[in-house]
Amino acid sequence: GENVEQHPSTLSVQEGDSAVIKCTYSDSASNYFPWYKQELGKRPQLIIDIRSNVGEKKDQRIAVTLNKTAKHFSLHITETQPEDSAVYFCAASYSSASKIIFGSGTRLSIRP
Amino acid sequence: GAVVSQHPSRVICKSGTSVKIECRSLDFQATTMFWYRQFPKKSLMLMATSNEGSKATYEQGVEKDKFLINHASLTLSTLTVTSAHPEDSSFYICSTLLGADNEQFFGPGTRLTVL
After folding, report:
1. Which residues from chain A sit within 8 angstroms of residue B106, using beta carbons?
2. Chain B residue closest to A4 (CA)?
3. pLDDT averaged over chain B?
4. Rg (CA), chain A
5. Predicted confidence (pLDDT) at residue B1 exceeds the cutoff of 70
6. CB proximity A7 to B under 8 Å
7. A40 and chain B: CB distance < 8 Å anywhere?
8. pLDDT at B30
9. Chain B residues with CB inside 8 Å of A101's CB?
10. How confident is the model at residue A30 (pLDDT cuts 50, 70, 90)?
11. Distance (Å, rounded) from C-alpha A87 to C-alpha A38?
């Protein structure tokens, strides 16, 4: 089955700087890669996703890159703000309608 | 607004009792729902895929007789934790698919504490 590894487990950056979170997956058949943000005690919220037919996607301060050959994908947050502090999960799936396998999570802290 | 609700949001029970958690899709039909478990400071672990009108598909290592899933209607799936023990204490979250892109929407979660 699919296995998703995520690092770092914790990340602290200065407000205004960029944050990068990296993930790798094991199953080459996976072709849908969502990223979720979870605040303490809350449900995960989809922040961006990418499908295997593209290598990069951007939405304002958030971007995701995908390297299918190497089976890794990354989340980039630019101009970080205090409200970006949360736990971020990467995930992989065969399709958006299939079960999702989550990475272990990254706790992002933004220093004022 | 929310598209998936869960009830209860929080439950405390004694060891040995059974607890039922409801997951409802609001204003749309959900043939497929997913149940996850999340221990403190850990990731979401998929427990099972719930399909309306048929048996749930459980992930490896998840006891189907302990975690009973029923998806009897297109808007409701239930997870029953039978004979709960302290190690079952966790955050249980359901999700469902919505829209042309089949985006997964998560419920608000149910925090179960077994004494």
Report:
1. 43-45
2. B43
3. 91
4. 13
5. no
6. no
7. no
8. 82
9. 46
10. very high
11. 5
Which pLDDT tens digit goes with each residue over B28-39?
788 889 999 999
> Under a CB-based contact definition with an 8 Å cutoff, are residues B22 and B11 in contact?
no
Q: CA neighbours within 13 Å on the CB side: how many for B49?
A: 13
Residue that has been written with the tokens 């892109």 in this structure: B101
Average pLDDT of chain A is 94
User: What type of residue is B52?
Assistant: E
Q: What is the pLDDT of residues B55-105, one digit of tens each?
A: 899 999 999 999 999 988 888 999 999 999 999 999 999 998 877 677 788
A46 chain-B contacts, CB cut-off 8 A: 103-104
Say if A102 is an interface residue toward chain B (CB within 8 Å).
Answer: yes
Distances from the Cα of B63 to the Cα of B56, B69, B96, B110, angstroms? 12, 11, 22, 19
Residue B83 CA: distances (Å) to CA of A1, A111, B18, B20, B114: 30, 44, 5, 11, 10
Q: Do B101 and A96 touch (CB under 8 A)?
A: yes
CB contact under 8 A, B103 and A105: no
* Closest residue on chain B to A102 (Cα): B44
Q: What percent of chain A is predicted at pLDDT more than 90?
A: 84
Nearest to B72 by CA among B58, B93, B55, B57: B55
Cα–Cα distance between B89 and A49 in angstroms, integer?
31
